[in-house]
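User: Structure please.
Assistant: Input sequence and predicted structure:
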Amino acid sequence: MEKIKKLEIIPLEGSNLFKFGDSQDLILETLGEPEDIELFEDEDEDEPNTSIWFYENNISLFFDEVDEDYFILKAIESSYPETYFKGTKIIGMSDNDLKNFLKSIGYDKFDEEIEDWGEKRISIEEDMIDFYIEDDTVISVAWSSEY
């Protein structure tokens, strides 16, 4: 896989490298083969099967099956150090700096919650972005879209 220089979050759309709704084949052209793939088959027929790909750059991609063996990108999770949001590096930012940054770019409302596993989550619901904080430091960010 080619070394990723920068992963820019584009709310509700994807990233600078790929977009939500892109096929697995298109992602393969961009990132190459993942290190690991997991397939989750939902027993509820109304819910799509999900495929998760894991990359060495600490990027996980979530795909939903829309047709038999045809999956499209639904969500991204990144702990890659060069992950940016609105031009600012996010991973490694302090909890307080993240909140101040979000307010400075117009996000006056965000939710905060402590997850069962102990990480703090700060969410921007309208843009479907979750920032995960451990020991007062942003360690990962996840974002998605409803297509």
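Helices lie at 24-31, 95-104.
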